[in-house]
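Subject line: Sequence and fold of a protein, written as structure tokens
Area: Proteins and the way their chains fold up in space.
Start of record: The labelled sequence and token lines come straight after this line.
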Amino acid sequence: MPVVESSITVPVDPATAFAVSQTTGATRLRWDPFVRRQHFLDGATAPGKGVRTFTRHTSGITMVSEYVSYAPPSNVGMRMVTGPWFFTNLAGGWRFKATDGGTLATWKYSFACRPVWLAPVAEWIGTRILQREIDRRIAGFARGCADPVVLAEARAGT
């Protein structure tokens, strides 16, 4: 199963970095180039293990995902419940580790494509596309960790 990963050090503590990664609404859109729209499902109002979310990517592709782990301030994991037909599965995990003067944020996605006969080519292409996406997304996250509006919202929610 292909895996893509990206890491960056941000100048905030792990609790704040984690909180930035979990911002929603207009605050999320300030930093996350991946998301056009995102909201909780099933009446949920906050993230947590078992909570499902709807996400519309900037390209228009949609997905429903579910938190499979939620352990502030160190990590969060999600898996796709429904989404683009070409993914057999898609999962992501974000980890936050204290460093001198900040936090090392590491984001990792794993995925598999279908149909099986096309998977080797689709996964080769998918690895390149998702690597570009995760690199853009973690760079946006770093900008969010330096944005006073995003930081205020994240800290208010912690």
